[in-house]
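hi! just following up on the protien thing from before. the input was this:
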Amino acid sequence: MKMPKKPPDFGTIWERIKDDQELIPKIFGERFAPSVRGKYLHWDKLIYHSPPKGLDHEQWWFALKMQRRSLFKQVPLNDKNGEPFKYIEVDPTPEILHEIDQGAGGLIRMPEQITNPNTRDQYYVSSLIQEAITSSQLEGAATTRRVAKEMIKTGRSPRDKSERMILNNYKTMQQIGKIKDKPLSKELVFEIHQLVTEKTLDDSSAAGRFRKATEKVHVIDMYNEVFHDPPPANQLEERMAAMCDFANGKTPSGFIHPVIRSIILHFWLAYDHPFVDGNGRTARALFYWSMLRHNFWLFEFISISQIIRKAPAKYGRAFLHTETDDNDLTYFILYHLDVIRRAIKELHEYIKRKTEKLQAIENQLRGIIVLNHRQRALISHALQHQHQRYTFKSHQISHHVVYQTARTDLLDLEKRGLLESQKIGKTWYFTPVSNLEEKLSELP
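and the predicted 3d structure came back as:
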């Protein structure tokens, strides 16, 4: 990723054009939209588009900025020099916000699988695992999804730092659902950071506290180019208090859509970078906390990090475009809204694929009334994964049930001849019998 080209100075352009009697009426007389052919362009992108007739690129940029300045809404976030951040609700922002309001907070067009209490927990756990893995991979975790999923579902201890990061993220996402009704405070942010970074920091004392003035933190690339130099440590206490007030809706006095508020909260924590490590994971966790707090319940099932990870450079550029263009948060908001829209679409597509894949097997299992819905789900999975090992712990986690319920389910499946068991160490492992389909046909 390269640092975007810094836009030309607004005042310098004005000094160059202010006495041009032909140009000034053109710039101020015509109504320039803040976007260009539906895209909110940074100077770094604008220079590759042809300007309107009679204008050069700098004059066109000046005209665009004039329109944008008249539409900006300020937020109570300032950069380290005291300059405010602001944004515009340009198209397609209202459209996407309407989609999220309808689709992520209500029950309109929601798949039956996640509104049905008998099956929703499978998708809940799957989403937590997906977000835990991809959020950690964005920060350098190298474990594969298969290995990480096996670790979480079997309950085994992590073997290295990468696995520990993923397990921490999984526990954090579980905790977010429990604390969503609590107002945000410095202590709660520290609690989240401690969960995210447990046993992964070189200095364990750095978990759940602000970085110190002596702990220099920068966002750099592999060639040590500095992309972001966060505010100094002596500003963090005051900035955190302001962030919590914003997150809790105390500021500003005007209305900010809760989705935009959640996105800005994500940016704010990442911009301040208050910790020596784990800032990105904590920022994304705060976004989820805010969305769930505002009753966008579908975000229990959505992973934004899996979308971000497909093109991480775009994630970084969204931050950089904001910082290099007069603290214009519109770039980050538009990027994040697109991520949300795609994540919701992926959830629907995932459920559709899952449904089609399991439909044939479910037809087989439909008549087997002696098995409950959890047992049928396990057998459906086992039919396609003949060498899969199940444990009381994995079954408990997958279906969000107590240990005794999980134990009863598996022992009953073994008793009916559908699973075989083997004890290794202190753990009982259950695997599908080799003639599982035949055994299913024998059940009443």
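The first strand starts at residue 73 and ends at 78.
The mean pLDDT is 90.
cheers
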